[in-house]
Write a structure and sequence with these properties.
Blueprint (H helix, E strand, L loop, with lengths): L1 E5 L9 H15 L3 E7 L15 E4 L2 E6 L8 H21 L7 E6 L2 H14 L2 E6 L5 H5 L6 H17 L2 E4 L3 H7 L8 E3 L15 H10 L7 E6 L9 H7 L6 E6 L5 H10 L6 E4 L4 H10 L2 E5 L13 H8 L3 E4 L3 H9 L3 E2 L5 H13 L1 H18 L2 H17 L1
Parallel strand pairs: 1-2, 1-5, 2-4, 5-6, 6-7, 7-8, 9-10, 9-12, 10-11, 12-13, 13-14
Antiparallel strand pairs: 3-4
Helix pairs in contact: 1-15, 2-3, 3-5, 7-10, 8-13, 11-14
């Protein structure tokens, strides 16, 4: 099978999309399929200045074409230009590929712009089109009030329906997406769920105090503090102002780490300065995946949340699997499917979303009974290793595509 994959982010670029696509490609290569990838040059959060890469890579059964795109910035209109530049340049790149006859075109969304390119190419080349949906665009952006113009919203929903209708196979990362897509007039028999999961390297050994202290020195983090960490996108969806509110209520022996980038980071930094909380919180720029393991090793507690919106009840943040693999207690402000996964794992404390008082109380509770919550965190690590290993999920994903091609 010959696969053409459109993905805006792919390693050595960082982020959940890049990690998931790398795992999918590995599963395809393990079955001797040939994969051609069209992706952007690494530019997410200025990583192009920190990592080395080749614009064109050619290996056995694998070709990667990294195309020039506008810089990925944490300003909405600049990010939109980044998405559109990839949409246009990736189509130009695909049209320049000569001599290959592909069996299937795969793309992952968001951003929906990358999916548009893949659909257009597949449509005119009369190829099987597989659409992966990792988030429900544009509905999420509408509920977040990012898009308010009714004309733009109607157009984006038309694009969304067109993509769903023309995809031979739709893959989703959460069962909660299935009903939403089916309501667009799409038959459920072409919708398959392949959740995110955890790579084996992120099933971490039990906490080691020596390693913890070494890493804290490396990142200039006080060794005598309880470290609560958030790793991921610093965006509107997460509303991390909740963290800042909790720090006004919590004791001085707690330090909060926020690792990542996003549209809200500048505002949060300003709030920290205005409220004189610099001694209680540390922002660290987005890190490559191998460095993220260091953050888990130096932390005591992990935190995540999504805004209290109905659409997020269907969502499973990809970071919950790595959080579980860390073996650390988790505080989570989630409802719906993601909350149920964490409840089933036995790890952590569920709090009200966007509630600073609840977050502060949960931190105190875990601090007081840390050994108790650590035992349950270890059970959570066993849970994620049993049910959510990414290599197995991706093998099933490739088998579904193989079945499509055989029809």
């Amino acid at each position: 099978m010959k696969i053409l994959l459109f993905t805006q982010h792919y390693p050595p670029d960082i982020g959940a999309q890049a990690a998931r696509m790398k795992a999918l490609v590995k599963a395809a290569l393990d079955k001797d399929h040939k994969v051609t990838i069209i992706t952007g040059e690494p530019n997410r959060y200025n990583t192009e200045n920190k990592i080395r890469y080749e614009k064109i890579e050619k290996k056995i059964n694998l070709e990667i074409y990294r195309i020039r795109v506008r810089e990925h910035k944490d300003i909405f209109w600049k990010r939109s230009i980044n998405y559109v530049s990839f949409m246009i340049n990736s189509l130009i790149c695909a049209l320049k590929l000569k001599g290959e006859k592909y069996d299937v075109v795969i793309t992952t969304s968001p951003p929906i712009t990358a999916a548009v390119t893949a659909f257009v190419f597949a449509y005119f080349k009369r190829l099987n089109f597989v659409l992966e949906v990792r988030d429900l665009w544009p509905d999420t952006l509408v509920q977040l009030n990012v898009f308010k113009n009714k004309v733009i919203i109607s157009f984006l929903k038309y694009v969304e329906r067109t993509l769903y209708k023309n995809a031979k196979l739709i893959t989703i990362v959460s069962d909660g997406f299935k009903k939403h897509i089916a309501e667009k007039g799409i038959t459920e028999d072409k919708i398959y769920t392949f959740t995110n999961g955890i790579d084996g390297e992120f099933i971490l050994p039990d906490s080691d105090i020596k390693i913890k202290n070494i890493l804290r020195k490396k990142y200039k983090i006080p060794g005598n503090k309880t470290i609560v960490s958030y790793v991921g996108n610093v965006g509107i969806s997460q509303n991390l102002e909740t963290v800042i509110g909790s720090l006004e209520k919590i004791e001085n022996d707690v330090t909060f780490l926020i690792i990542g980038e996003g549209l809200e980071k500048r505002r949060l930094l300003r709030l920290v300065r205005e409220r004189h909380l610099e001694s209680k919180i540390l922002f660290i720029d987005a890190l490559p995946r191998d460095k993220i393991k260091d953050i888990y090793r130096l932390s005591d507690i992990l935190f995540l949340q999504l805004k209290d919106l109905i659409i997020f009840n269907r969502t499973i943040p990809s970071k919950i699997f790595e959080y579980l693999g860390s073996g650390l207690p988790i505080i989570y402000g989630l409802n719906g499917i993601a909350a149920n996964i964490l409840k089933d794992s036995g790890n952590g404390i569920k709090i009200k979303q966007e509630n600073s008082e609840d977050l502060a109380t949960a931190i105190r509770t875990i601090k007081i009974k840390y050994d108790f919550y650590l035992i349950w965190a270890k059970k959570g690590k066993e849970f994620v290793a049993k049910y959510y290993m990414r290599d197995k999920i991706m093998q099933d994903y490739i088998e579904a595509i193989e079945s499509l091609i055989r029809k």
